[in-house]
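Notebook entry, structure prediction.
Reason for the run: the old model in the group folder had no record of what sequence produced it. Starting over properly, with the input documented here first.
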Amino acid sequence: MITEPLRHIFSQLEQLPEEAQNRLATIIQEHLEEDEEQEWAGIVGKPRVRDALRRLAAEARQQER
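New structure, fully documented this time:
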């Protein structure tokens, strides 16, 4: 679902030249990727998650042998 303020902004962006739209799309995409990376870092940074990942990695190494 898109909020009304965001819908309004998108309607204004449609009036921009294609090059400007593409630049803005790139900026938005980079921002979203940074947010996702920070979210994953927060998840993986938790001690119990790190411990679980270490156990899974050890199990995977054992299965390779």
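Summary: Residues 37-65 form one domain.
The old model has been moved to the deprecated folder.
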